[in-house]
Write a structure and sequence with these properties.
Elements lengths: L23 H12 L12 E7 L5 E7 L2 E3 L2 E7 L3 H8 L2 E8 L4 E11 L2 H10 L2 H9 L9 H14 L12 E15 L7 E8 L2 E6 L3
Helix pairs in contact: 4-5
The protein binds flavin mononucleotide (FMN).
Length: 215
């Protein structure tokens, strides 16, 4: 099969106004629970989301990061503040998140503004990570050019030796969380003949307006 011949029909479900919760976070959590139900493919990370960032010149980049919680109606993830994404978010806090749950033929798209989480929250989450991940965060100056893999592995081995038998691996100052405060959240359900359902919550002062978009 060639790429242009690849197509699936989306026939699993529909999405009507009556199905939706009054607020988008309740709706998100409903769909998140659906996505993580027992019959989900084992390999699928339902908390993986595409994060799109850009700098003031308009250069856009995107990559996958993992959602680690929803705190005070903000979508939280963790990364290196000095990475390319970190530098872009420092200069331009406007971001977009996108979840794909292909087993449900669903997509959730979020537009919002990002701020750093508190150092306390970052350190607390860092401490919950596996030892190897904590060591790697100290070794990797994310997004920088490195001469070869061996440099990274040597550095990891050094840190591993230095912290042998110890659990006080430091959370780097440049490592921590971001929280996305959404202004729009779209719920997309694939439908037959590409006549999909798209329902968007748009923030209006202290409330949310719900509209349907053409697919
Ligand atoms: C499934 C998956 C999960 C990932 N989770 C994270 C994450 O939570 N935080 C992170 O910094 N990078 C994560 N990455 C790596 C990023 O996609 C990316 O390579 C890295 O953050 C560097 O991005 P940047 O150079 O654009 O800043 C993940 C990648 C994949 C494929």
């Amino acid at each position: 099969m060639t790429i242009d011949q690849m197509r699936l029909s989306y026939t699993l479900a529909g999405l009507s106004e009556a199905d939706l919760a009054a607020d988008p976070f309740t709706q998100f959590l409903r769909w998140f629970a659906d996505a993580g139900a027992d019959d989900k493919p084992e390999w699928l990370e339902i908390n993986a989301m595409t994060l799109a960032t850009s700098d003031p010149s308009g250069r856009v980049t995107s990559r996958i990061v993992l959602l680690k919680g929803i705190e005070a109606e903000r979508f939280v993830f963790f990364t290196n503040y000095l990475s390319e994404k970190g530098r872009q978010m420092e200069a331009n806090p406007q971001v977009s998140l996108c979840f794909l749950w292909p087993h449900l033929q669903r997509q959730v798209r979020i537009v919002g503004t990002v701020t750093k989480t508190s150092r306390e929250a970052s350190v607390s989450y860092f401490a919950s990570r596996p030892r190897g991940s904590r060591l790697s965060a100290n070794v990797s100056s994310q997004s920088d050019v490195v001469p070869d893999r061996a440099v990274l592995e040597r550095s990891l081995a050094d840190w591993d030796t230095r912290y042998e038998g110890r659990d006080d691996i430091p959370c780097p100052e440049h490592w921590g969380g971001y929280a996305v405060d959404p202004s729009e959240i779209e719920f997309w359900q694939g439908r037959e003949s590409r006549l999909h359902d798209r329902m968007v919550y748009r923030r209006a002062a202290s409330t949310w307006n719900l509209v349907r978009l053409a697919p």
